[in-house]
Each structure stands twice: as C-alpha cells, then as structure tokens.
Amino acid sequence: MLYKKENKVPLHKHPSEQSGYVISGKYILIIEDAKYEIGPGDSYTVPSDTEHAIEAIEPGEILDFFSPPRKDYR
Description:
single chain; mainly beta; 6-stranded antiparallel beta sheet; 6 strands
C-alpha cells in the first residue's frame, strides 16, 4: 500500500487477519480503542473481524498480508 500524506482508511473490519510491515512513512494505526504511532521497521497484526483504521502522517509504503488472502485484492 502506498500512502500520501493525510491519506485515511476509515474504521472497518474484514474476515481476514491482517499483518503489516512499515517500509517507510509515519502513521497512526487504530485497533479497536487503541492508537499506535508506527514508522519504518514496525509491524502489526489485526485479528479477523476487528475494527481498525490507519492515517498517514508522512507519505510512505506498508506491505500488508491477509490470511486467508482477500479475494477483492487479487
């Protein structure tokens, strides 16, 4: 995922577990009621069916993985 400054992904959830690795940029990650500031070298996991959102503070790139793979991203 490539993010521009101030890009936002609103609160949402999906049946796939999601894990990500931050390659570059700076972000606010929200998982349920918790907020995290993440940057290069950080990783995260969002359990399936858990509300989450992300906002780019600085532009960058995140490598996301979904298990099982999301058909809408194929």
